[in-house]
Amino acid sequence: MTDILNSTSIPLKLRDFYKGLAKKSNRWRILGGILLIILLLTSLGSIDRGVVYGGIEGQVFYDLDGDGERDFDEPYVHNMLIKLISSDLGEIESTSPNSEGLFSFNSVPPGEYTVVGIPDVDWELTTDSSVEITVEEQSTILVSFGIMQIEVP
After folding, report:
1. Diameter of the chain by CA atoms?
2. The pTM is what?
C-alpha cells in the first residue's frame, strides 16, 4: 500500500484539491485555503508531530507568618515575575500571576526546567527562589512561591 502522505504526493494532491475548490463558492474556497495552509505547514514540519506536551502551573501566596508554607488564611497575590528556564535553551518564557495568584506555562515540551520567582520591589521570598523540575509528556507540574512584604523601618 502506498503512503498517500509521502513527500512527492502531497504537493500534487494539494494542487488538485485546490483546483477543485476554484469551482466552489467563496465559503468553500476560504475553508479550502485554510486547510491547504495547515497541510502545507504540516508537510514542511512547522507543526510538531508526535510530541506530547506537558505543563506547569503554580501559585504565589502572601506568607503572613514567613514560614514558607501556605496556611489556609494566607491569600494568593500577584506581586511577582515568574520565568521558565530550559536547561538546553535558557530562558524561554516569563509570566506574572493573575489577580488570584495563579500562573501557568502551557504546551511545554518534555525536558529539564527551572522555574524562577522574582518578587516585586518591597517584597521578599519566603520559599526558594527557584525550583528545578522535569516535565514529562502529558504531565502538569505544580510550583508554589511564598512572599511577604519587607518591613520598612
Report:
1. 79
2. 0.66
